[in-house]
Design brief:
The protein is α+β, with helices and mostly antiparallel strands and about 140 residues long. It has 3 helices and 8 strands; from the N terminus they run βαβββαβαβββ. The chain has an 8-stranded mixed beta sheet.
Amino acid sequence: MMDTDAGMQLHHVGYVVRDLDAAAAIYSSLGFEVGEPFAIPEQHIVAVTIHAGSGWIELIQPTDPEGPIAAYMAKKGEGVHHVAFQVPDIEAKLAELKAANIQLIDETPRSGAHGWRIAFIHPKACNGVLTELVQVSE
């Protein structure tokens, strides 16, 4: 198998849920160590991250019934919301994708959970999957 981008790796999979506490309890009963809930007001969500091997699971509950995550859940229900890949330099990756005419939601990074810098690639560019880029703060 050809390694086309050694700088990228799976970071987390985000699930949208109606009841964060109930969803977190399920993962706890499966044996995962569940983190503490934290709010991200600018994204209208409360979330929990769960360490899963070399990656993470991110449970996301909307806090605003008019917000984008609530709208997504109303349309598609609970389940996988996005897949995230860690990159060493998010600005460089976004510039590379833009130059390749990849449809982006975010052309510049924004603040995400845990101080991570994030940006989203449009689902139309990734076979219908909302894809997030993450640069972890050192």
